[in-house]
Amino acid sequence: MLLLPLLSLSALWGFVLNLTMGDAQSLLRAGTLYQTLGVTSTDLGLQLQAERVRSAEALTTRELTEALGGQRARTDRSVGEFRQAVTEAGDAAGNLGRPLGTLMGALDQLGSIRADIDNGLSSRLSGLNEYNRILDSIFLLYDHLVSVSDLGILQQASSLQAMGMAREQIAREHALVIGALADGRLTEPETAAFTEYAASRRFLHARGLAGLEVTLRRPYEQIFASESFQTFLSLEARIVRTGAPPPDAAGWTETISSLTSQLDKHGLAAAEVLAARTSEAATATVAEIAIAGGVGLIAVLASIIISVRFGRRLARELGGLRAAAVELSEQRLPDIVERLRKGEDIDVRKEAKAIKVSGSAEITDVARAFGSVQRTAVTAAVGQAALRRGVGQVFLNLARRKQGLLHRQLALLDGMQRRTHDPDRLEELFRLDHLTTRMRRHAESLIVLSGSAPGRAWRKPVPVIDIVRAAVAEVEDYTRVAVEAMPVSAFDGGAAADLTHLLAELVENATIYSPPDTQVQVRGDQVSNGYAVEIEDKGPGLSAPEYAAFNTLLADPPEFDLADSDRLGLFVVARLAARHGIKVLLRRSPFGGTTAIVLVPREMVTEQTALTAGDSGEEMAALPSRTRKKALAVVTSGTHAGLPRRVRQAGPSSRLQPSEEPAPGQPADRSPDEVRDLFSAFQRGTQRAREEAQDEGDK
């Protein structure tokens, strides 16, 4: 939070410092350039002007004199010194690349210019113009040398530059006149050039004089008021007017020498004054930068130190608040919710303790707000738990009442079955008995969802095959369920009712979500971790995400959501499995349907070596009368112990067939005598079961 403002402040300080340092560096660079390029280029210009005058005489007389040779030697030395100055300037001349390149290229042409003059290939005006182009390159360099950030210095440097260029125009006039004095005439192009030089000189003098300050302008005003300058003006006007050189060559030369000497002397003095001012301004700017930058740096450092200390304190306070909030969200509230799920009573005042943090007012305000949120959350959780308990109690009360009514209904049905010998009526009573058994299972589902346990339990272990057959008997479409042979074993009697209920829910789910003309296979086997029961259907199956979601629910059942009634059976299975440590897993069957695997832990499994697969009558004795009677009706074929055994149909139930004709392979309808014998056997079995149940109650 504090890093960004500090970085912004540091960046702003650096930016301002860089701008100010840029101004100082510009002034210092201007002084360096003046001491190197400025001095040497000025001398180079003077030498080129002198060589131009000597070359004008040679172009007129076509004679190469010693004076011209000596001047060329001095010019060459000046060129060498200038090149050396460029090297010494180094990085300071970095922004002068274009004007320096232009001047260096012009100086490289100096040899060819001299050769044309020596060989008589150049006219007087064209030869002088070649020198003029070199001098123009020097003045272009001067324009870039005076690019400083100080406006006052820049204005004075520009004015002095204009006075220097006016001095160059006088030198050009002098070169033309010297050439013309040798043959006594000015050509028409030369006269036009002289007129142009005179006009440029007047404009540059006016421009430069107007921009100079008093101390620098006064010497120029004195020069312009001198006799030599006035004489020059009159001679210049005469040449422009007549187009002929002055008659007095010595007078012209003396006037020009006196005038240019004064101009050069004052120009050099003015340049030195301006250079000194530039150096002083640079020094003052650097001093200001040092003071301002130092103060700014101290301010930045002080801000950093204060911000770091404040940030550390704030971080400690926020760290304490964060730790308290994390403890609240990840430990205290989940612990309270878990305790509420277990049915414990929670004291809101005791559990919703205030969050104790120290620090600024804002931190304590946030802590109080968290405390308020905590109290609200705990109160809401307690209220939700109370609501769930209330709903569960409603479920339990309704289920108990419904259970009592169903038990009474089953007792009435039992009595009616004993008193009835009509086969048709016995069949209807049997169907009603089956429907009532299913209703009893649904009532027990409500008891399971309420968090309570059904009342049915047995002291002795119950054979696995009996539990499986009893579960199948509680399914509406039990005729489609095929129970394969299973290893003889038994489950703990205390969990027999819950296991029967769990398997019944899974078998019913398999029959509902599979085509009506298919069978549901139920098989079991002993495994290393206990006993596994598999229920496989031929339905369309589920997607991988759906299997994952259902298996998660079965492994860790959440709180029952009243809005999610579509998964009521899975919630019941999950609750029953969690109660006894049973693992239930759904996966795709190799045939395309779904296989439900129920793994009963080893501690709930008891080996029953004394039992055999054929002793179904003895096995059934372990179940209650109602469940035993239903199980006997759906299991095997043949007869046993005087009871007829029902042969499993080869196809779907007759009520699922589109026509009234029996399906191929389906057994023919029983005769009335067989039906009578069947239900008489049911009646005798019921009587025996009631007696055994009475004996169990007496125990």
Structure, described:
There is one protein chain. By secondary structure, the protein is α+β, with helices and mostly antiparallel strands. The chain has three domains: 3-297, no CATH class; 345-452; 461-698, Heat Shock Protein 90 (2-Layer Sandwich), CATH 3.30.565. Helix content is 69%, strand content 7%. The chain has helices at residues 3-61, 66-89, 97-108, 110-118, 124-145, 151-183, 188-211, 214-224, 227-242, 249-341, 348-351, 361-419, 423-449, 464-473, 496-512, 544-555, 568-580, 616-620, 625-632, 672-698; strands spanning 462-463, 481-483, 489-491, 520-527, 530-536, 583-588, 594-601, 605-607, 638-640, 643-645. It has a five-stranded mixed beta sheet with strand order 2-4-5-7-6. Strands 1-3-8 form a three-stranded antiparallel beta sheet. Strands 9-10 form a two-stranded antiparallel sheet. Strand 9 and strand 10 form a beta hairpin. Helix 8 (214-224) packs antiparallel against helix 10 and helix 19 (625-632) runs antiparallel to helix 20. The longest helix has 93 residues, at 249-341.
